[in-house]
Amino acid sequence: MARGANDSRRARKLLLAALQTPETLPALPPADWELLLRVARRARVLGRIESELARAGLLDHIPPRAATHLKAARNVIQHRKTLVSWEVNRLLWALQGIDVPLILLKGTGYLMAGLPPAHGRIFADVDLLIPEQRIAEVEERLLACGWFRTHIDPYDDRYYRVWMHEIPPLRHRERGTEIDIHHRLLPRTSHFKSDPEPLFATARPLADPRLRVLAPADMVLHALAHLFLEGDPDEGLRLRDLVDVHDLLGEFARDPGFWRELVARARELGFGRLLFYGLQNAQHLLATKVPPDVLQQMERDAPSWPVRKLMARLIPLALLPEHPDHPSRRAELSRWLLYIRAHWLRMPPLLLSRHLSHKAWLRLRGAKKRIDLAQLDLKQQ
Amino acid sequence: MIVADLNRREFARKLAGAGLSIRFGPFNLTIRSDLSSLATAAHELYAPYPVPETDAIHDFHVGVARPRSLRRWIRRQACFVVDSNRPFAPYTVEHAFPALEWGINWCVATRSHHLLMLHAAGVERGGRAILFPASPGDGKSTLCTALIHSGWRLLSDEFGLVRPEDGALLPLPRLIPLKNESIEVIRRFRPQAVFGPAFFGTRKGTVVHVQPPVDSIRRMHETARPRWLVFPRWTAGAPLSLQPMAKSEAFVMVAGNAFNYEVLDETAFRLVAEMVERCDCYALSYSDLAEAVAALDDLSPAADG
Known about the structure:
Strand order of the largest sheet of chain A: 3-4-5-2-1-7-6
Helix content of chain B: 25-40%
Order of helices and strands of chain A: HHHHEHEHEHEEHEEHHHHHHHHH
Distance between the termini of chain A: 29 Å
Strand content of chain A: 5-15%
Number of helices of chain B: 9
Number of domains of chain B: 2
Structural class of chain B: alpha+beta
Mean pLDDT of chain B: 93
Low-confidence stretches of chain A: 368-377
Radius of gyration of chain A: 21 Å
Distance between the termini of chain B: 31 Å
Number of helices of chain A: 17
Radius of gyration of chain B: 19 Å
Largest sheet of chain B: 8 strands, mixed
Oligomer: heterodimer
Number of domains of chain A: 1
Shape of chain B: globular
Structural class of chain A: alpha/beta
Largest interface: A-B, 32 and 20 residues
Mean pLDDT of chain A: 87
Largest sheet of chain A: 7 strands, mixed
């Protein structure tokens, strides 16, 4: 047990050092490289480490065997970028003649806007935000142009349509790529008010005027919402999402008005607490540069002292991978607690208990979790 | 050092403890398992494989373990584990060894995107290789097993690993899993080959692993150049025929049978184009293994030395 805890500490230290100071990696001994590759794969940041080393011209200064893993990750990422850009191109083709604002979210947005998180980041699907009243029209057009509704059971379909912030994913018949169409950033049932109107008002157009991305402050807040509210009981909170936040903050902070805007917008949208947690953890784990006065201001949004203490322990445990040979009960519990918390914030208690008992019933009956080989393949990078 | 340098006890202790370190072609692996049935088969079949140096980086950390859920008390099962993930449904405990072998291939196929991975068997003689790109069921494993017990060196029965930097083929001489009818065919063709235990009723029917000849394992670091592309098809009672094939057709079949042609994009196109350009391409139809081996031997009389 003690050995497991020590090994996990070593694994976390290696991972954070690789993200904060990649220039020190050439001095890493082989045994540390081996562990770093394993935890970086689990946290899905192999591509990020590769892009940082490439930028510093250090790829030839690391063990060749480690370099093969990074190169493999880079090749997959490059391929996914091609797929996602092409999918956006096809989307514009399919929606010709329909005048609807298309906001590209998350990875798709970073890629098409050329923002730093796109370097070394894996891209899964295309994520879109469009006004709710236009969804039927867009969905119909896509179904006519080669996309289809992925097969899901009636419960899941209802789950999406009635409670969620997106419709069930559409997949292209030949290319297999998925498009997630959102009409708001958070579920309808969420504790947070998630009126999408203000997002459309401030979105920024890209080179193709039909495409937009969220305004800088909104983009950071969306990345934080994704980090803290879309947990997964096995994976925990995604460190990858915190790295996105770190990169976005670094980029946007070059505009002197950004921080003031961010704090104001967070409070306006009811995301003050999320921003507090996000800045604390980004600074603590990734050494993100946050102006002291911003941190001071955010104290107003902090939770009560005991909750604050508890979250300060739970969040890093759920964010950081353990040593892969010594999975720890404590980290597992943290992930599970934060998953329950995320769900708690997603839906009111009665709905939540109904939803979770439905899922438990499925598991009891031995219903197979859908195993998507393509997705497994992505998780390998 | 090779695995055979460890006695059965040391081998089992490593497997159940920190992990057995072993090298398969370009990959270093750590394998862990506390299932004794698996240790027996693995100790025998992995014996000639090298053990990486102590400070080597291991590429994959795999193993086979009992399921974590309550089901472990109901049925005796075994899960393939990579790092701490269990990507597949449990197998019955008797199939732990084929599960491990199959899982390792899955790791190679899903992670090695620094290489172009063709779905092809490959053998070599005199530095020149024959690749057999084929879909499962076309009998490439059987043909390949016959060839490596007839003077050819095994590159792989499954993966044509192409290094993008120079187009060289990297050998990955793993155990060859023969299925169903091919087991008897090879037992008759080369009774002295090293066969593992038979696993009945797996997801692919009966499986028996054949150990590659020791020479193929010892020379797993020697790369080869592709010289022939042969597309095999076994048909019961068919007369032997080895017909030249149009390069354009060969290109489509090689590219279409790759694990990651799309991932490597332009690089993959260039590598396959160069390979097809350099190779003589044939369609092989056969029913008798000995005849097929003789016909392929005739492709390279000059290189035999």
